[in-house]
Design a protein that fits this description.
The chain is mainly alpha-helical. It folds into two domains: 80 residues, Orthogonal Bundle (Arc Repressor Mutant, subunit A); 139 residues, GntR ligand-binding domain-like (Four Helix Bundle (Hemerythrin (Met), subunit A), Up-down Bundle). Helix content is 69%, strand content 3%. It contains eleven helices and two strands, in the order αααββαααααααα. Strands 1-2 form a two-stranded antiparallel sheet. It is elongated. About 2% of the residues have low confidence. InterPro entries: GntR_C, TF_FadR/GntR_C, Tscrpt_reg_HTH_GntR, WH-like_DNA-bd_sf, WH_DNA-bd_sf. One of its GO terms (molecular function) is DNA binding. It comes from Reyranella soli. This is GntR family transcriptional regulator.
Length: 251
């Protein structure tokens, strides 16, 4: 086995351990401050070296899911410590059937705070280039028609392009951080909400308001778009319900 192949195998095993343990933590299998399996146990379970397990722990620690302390072991951290916009944390949250409705609505609430304001800022601050990016994404959405799979990518690009058009460094940084969140959300919404074509006129209203530099109309149009999204999600996903603690997997 070459050095490159060995490194890839190690990375793959590290990712697998991190994914299983991370998914268990976000699903509520391990409560805050509860001990998670240690290096020796996971090493035996996966047939991996303790070095590989330590690397998996480092990944989860960087995502805010665990904390390791001398003499007290490695413990799950509370939800408020999790890096919710991390791509893996998002995927694990949405993979958990009980957590999905609540987290989808959490994303909706954040979008309702950020995106109408971003649309208004984009109306005031867009350049020819940033407007063109929004227009291109919208044109691709129109071409996608009723195909939810084809619609998802330009929909993500449309909302990201609006954030970029704000010419606000903090807002643009937020857009970079939330790319994964928007990607997961759009795919969940598309999966449940049926044909996406009815939302095209609402996206067009946002674009038109930005194009004519009408900040108030852009804000209102984005609110209308997100309101429709919320109704679709509620109708197809249901309202969030209190989650119960998941059963721990057998060893």
């Amino acid at each position: 086995m070459t050095a490159t192949a060995s490194a890839r195998r190690k990375e793959s095993r590290t990712a697998a351990i991190a994914a299983e343990l991370g998914a268990a933590i976000v699903a509520g299998v391990y409560r805050p401050d509860e001990l998670v399996p240690g290096e020796v146990e996971l090493s035996h379970r996966y047939g991996a070296s303790r070095t590989v397990v330590r690397e998996a722990f480092k990944l989860l620690s960087a995502k805010g899911l665990i904390a390791s302390r001398k003499r007290s072991g490695t413990r799950a951290r509370p939800r408020e410590a999790w890096h919710m916009l991390d791509a893996d944390v998002l995927a694990w949250r949405l993979k958990s059937g009980q957590a999905e409705p609540k987290f989808v609505f959490d994303l909706l609430h954040v979008r309702a705070i950020v995106e109408p304001a971003a649309a208004a800022m984009a109306a005031r601050s867009h350049t020819a280039a940033t407007l063109a990016a929004i227009e291109t994404a919208f044109a691709d959405m129109e071409c996608a028609g009723h195909d939810a799979v084809l619609f998802a990518d330009p929909d993500i690009r449309f909302h990201k392009a609006i954030l970029a058009a704000t010419d606000n460094d903090v807002m643009m940084a937020f857009g970079a951080l939330t790319e994964a969140a928007l990607g997961v959300f759009v795919r969940v919404a598309s999966r449940h909400a049926g044909a996406p074509a009815p939302s095209v006129p609402l996206h067009r209203a946002v674009l038109d308001a930005i194009r004519r530099r009408d900040a108030e109309a852009a804000h209102a149009a984005m609110m209308a778009l997100l309101d429709r999204t919320a109704r679709n999600v509620e109708r197809n996903v249901g309202r969030p319900r209190a989650s119960r603690r998941a059963a721990k997997p057998s060893k």
